[in-house]
């Protein structure tokens, strides 16, 4: 799923909520039991007519009593919701209803849910952030959530989610990207990764690369995207090292950085990157295609 490719606005509006709700219900109808979908529709209708916080808490938690724990959308079945499971879809449907309440009711209820949420409930809460109002009231919770050691929670904030790119400070953004590199998450799925580049992040990535190389370890080639536009002598040397690598993904990353460089510091690499530069010119090599290759490579490694 790539939320950058959708037409839906990534902030809450009264006009958007019914469309998103109907989209969620349509998807749930494909995988969930009719009784479960009927319960969700009835719950939404009841809470929409008269919102009450305690019944809403019970409904949010009670999703697990109505929907299938293993129920999941087929991969690539929806450009927004990807292969989300039924629990997450149903809970985000409820959160769209919560988003229509006044600010105090919304903020207090959201944080109360988060304070008692289990893993799957936290994932739903963070996944819903792009469609929720008052982002300034949710920012601290999102930043705190990134400190979790649970990958699913980290991913629900950092991947396929526009909230960080739209709301994080450079400091919070940089910490998120560096952690994603450290725990080997697919950087191409971080929305805004190509737009939120900054010199401090570029320098930190170079430092991390040198630490890893000194320890005989690699750094994901995707990391170098965040160094585009910040090519000093040190980073130029890093890109030269990648260009000379025996790993094709490293050379691909070097070529992608080279293709956007206007400093002149990488010109000596041109002849050695001819095949990769041709692929870039043909549209066959982008940061997204490289990221997908790295994600598939990691998946195969985990399965062996």
Question: Secondary-structure element sequence?
Answer: HHHHHHHHHHHHHHH
Bin the strand percentage. under 5%
The percent of residues in helical segments reads 55-70%
Indicate the structural class: mainly alpha
How many separate domains? Answer: 2
The rough form would be described as: elongated
Oligomerization: single chain
- The parts where pLDDT drops under 50 for at least 5 residues are 1-15
Please report the number of helical segments.
Answer: 15
Rounded to the nearest angstrom, the distance between the terminal CA atoms is: 25 Å
* Number of E-type strands: 0
Let me know the average pLDDT: 93
Report on this model:
The chain is an all-alpha fold and 304 residues long. It has 2 domains: 3-149; 187-303, no CATH class. Helices cover 60% and strands 0% of the residues. It has 15 helices and no strands. The protein has helices at residues 16-31, 34-49, 53-66, 86-98, 103-116, 119-127, 135-145, 151-158, 163-167, 170-182, 199-214, 233-243, 248-259, 274-281, 287-303. Helix 2 (34-49) packs antiparallel against helix 3 and helix 13 (248-259) runs antiparallel to helix 15. The radius of gyration is 22 Å and the shape is elongated.
